[in-house]
Structure formats: structure tokens, C-alpha cells
Amino acid sequence: MIQNPLGVGLAMSGNSGSVTDEARIGGENQFLIYGVQLGFLGMFLYILLLGFSISRSIRVFRLTENVMTARIAFTAAAVKTGLLLPLFTSNAELFAYVTWITWWMVGYAMNEYSKIKNEEA
After folding, report:
1. 121 contact partners, CB below 8 Å, separation of at least 6
2. Domain map of the chain by residue range?
3. CB atoms < 10 A from the CB of 45, how many?
4. pLDDT below 50 — which residues of the chain?
5. Cβ contact 33:86 at 8 Å
6. Are 66 and 113 in contact (CB under 8 A)?
7. What are the distances in angstroms from CA 31 to CA 10, 39, 84, 117, 120?
8. Count of alpha carbons within 13 Å of 31, Cβ hemisphere only?
9. What pLDDT sits at residue 77?
């Protein structure tokens, strides 16, 4: 990250099979992978996106009247919060099922959040 503060490009580092041996950086965490690939700005945006998604999902859980939506929002916040520690020790977003389902739940919660805000206005 010091040599390339703007990043080296997507899929140019990490444990991916397409990465050449000289560019492969092993043993890092999710935040460093995004930092190497997207630079400092990309890493900070990813961290802010995680925090934003957790806080808004909790807010949807508290504000919504729909029980099923509240469950999805709570699960999204709980899983993203629970993944914070593994993200420091591994590339947890590498697993497609975990990534797709959790970000879908976050997206569902964000959609509900915009509906709640429109109803209040």
C-alpha cells in the first residue's frame, strides 16, 4: 500500500488463483486486500460501508413495523458485526454465499430504510 497508495487493481493481490506468485500477498486480512487492490481510499470506503450498513440495518430493525423485514435487518446487522473479527484474520468475503446473502440482506434493509424515511417526510 505504501508503494501504490491508489491500489494495484482488482484481483491483483490476495489468495486468488489468477494472481501470479510475485504479486501474491498471503496471510493478510480483508481490509488489507482491499487496501492493496483499491488503495487507501478504497479501504476506507469499504470500512465506512461496513459501518454504515450495520448502523442502518439496526435502525431499520428498530423502526419497521414489518416483522419479517425486522428479522432480515437484524440478521444483516448481526452477521456483518459478527464478521468484523474474521475479516481481520482472513479473506471472509471470498466465499460467494456469505457475501451475496449478507449484502442482499443489507440492500433489503437499505430499501426498507428509504421507505421508512419517505413515510416520515
Report:
1. none
2. 49-120
3. 13
4. none
5. no
6. no
7. 13, 10, 10, 31, 36
8. 14
9. 97
Dihedral angle sign, alpha carbons of residues 52, 53, 55, 59: positive
Distances (CA, A) of 6 to 3, 36, 40, 65: 9, 8, 7, 43
The pLDDT value given to residue 25: 59
Place of cell 440478521: 75
**Cell numbers standing for residue 51:** 459501518
Q: Cell triple for residue 16?
A: 486468488
Residues near 11 by beta carbon (within 8 Å), at least 6 away in sequence: 18, 19, 37
User: Is-contact 28 35, C-beta < 8 A?
Assistant: no
pTM value is: 0.82
Burial class (CB in 10 A: 0-12, 13-18, 19+), 47: middle
d(CA 35, CA 87): 13
pLDDT of residue 3: 78
